[in-house]
From TrEMBL:
Species name: Xanthobacter dioxanivorans
Lineage: Bacteria, Pseudomonadati, Pseudomonadota, Alphaproteobacteria, Hyphomicrobiales
Keywords, comma-separated and alphabetical: Amino-acid transport, ATP-binding, Nucleotide-binding, Transport
One function term, GO molecular function aspect: branched-chain amino acid transmembrane transporter activity
Sequence ranges assigned to domain ABC transporter in this UniProt record: 5-230
Protein name: ABC transporter ATP-binding protein
Length: 232
């Protein structure tokens, strides 16, 4: 089966600094995959390479078997990719509804529109005229996910979505993401929070020093083994 997204022996750089070393990974249609690792090992560089914020020198990135051209945050949706960035990047001078509408700028057809997002996150409907940055951290993460869904992606990439959130909010986020997976959206989760990863992911890759050091099926590995592989 052809992968929805595939990194094939990708090397990536920031200037002269070599960050990713021959990284290979894939996400199939409708699959939930996690990328794990400590801070500074290159996890976010995977996203940045996809969005041409890091320079790829060697290897290939493919979408449904075809080479993926250089994309940016605002053009990734044309290829069926939406990214929920680390730090959420909510625009402070726009209301919740205006932030959501940004996600639909390219008008890609699909099931996700304002009503569908508000049904998923009712608090956003209640506060739709409020500035996006007036929300709590958990609500801002809901807004960031909702904005990404407005692009009607085939693949949703989340970069450290649990960062700064209370455990109860992380559990709520996991439930929402599981529901999303049931709609057919593939998920690539870049995360350190093992509970969220185990709740959501079917497969995983561990990144260490910019390379894949372990991979497997989530249900076949216990948490202690997974934690040890991250700490190596």
């Amino acid at each position: 089966m052809t992968a929805l997204l595939e990194f094939d022996a990708v090397n990536a750089y920031y200037g002269a600094a070599h960050i990713l070393h021959g990284v290979s990974l894939k996400v199939d249609e409708g699959e939930r995959v996690a990328v794990l690792g400590r801070n500074g090992v290159g996890k976010t560089t995977i996203v940045n390479t996809l969005l041409a914020l890091a320079t790829m020198r060697g290897g290939a990135i493919r979408m449904r078997g075809a080479a993926l051209p250089r994309v940016a945050g605002h053009t990734a949706a044309m290829h069926g990719i939406a990214v929920v960035p680390q730090g959420r990047k909510i625009l402070p001078n726009l209301s919740i509804e205006e932030n959501l509408k940004l996600g639909a700028a390219l008008r890609r057809p699909g099931r996700w529109d304002l009503d569908a997002v508000y049904a998923l996150f009712p608090v956003l409907r209640e506060r739709r005229h409020t500035p996006g940055t007036a929300l709590s951290g958990g609500q801002q993460q809901m807004l960031a996910v909702g904005r990404a869904l407005m692009a009607n992606p085939d693949l949703l990439i989340l970069d450290e979505p649990s960062e700064g959130l209370a455990p109860v909010i992380v559990d709520e986020l996991a439930g929402v993401l599981r529901d999303l997976a049931g709609t057919g959206v593939a998920i690539l989760l870049i995360e350190q929070h093992l509970r969220l990863v185990r709740d959501l992911s079917e497969r995983f890759y561990v990144i260490s020093k910019g390379a894949v050091s372990a991979t497997g099926v989530m249900k076949d590995v216990d948490q202690k083994t997974l934690q040890a592989s991250i700490m190596r």
